[in-house]
Amino acid sequence: GGAPLLGVNGTALICHGASQSRTIKNAILASKKYYTEKINEKITEYLSGTSVRTSDEQAN
Asked: What CA–CA distance (Å, rounded) separates 38 from 60?
């Protein structure tokens, strides 16, 4: 649905200007997934060698 922009402090996906509504919807859903699954934090963790836990992991 969209391409993630890496290197930004947050969740950002871009789509082509001529994208159909279905593509935009899928990009929005992917963006939500990136946010809820803490993808940026996991990338930062991997690159820096530190550990970031999700709220589900902290509850266990």
From this structure: 17
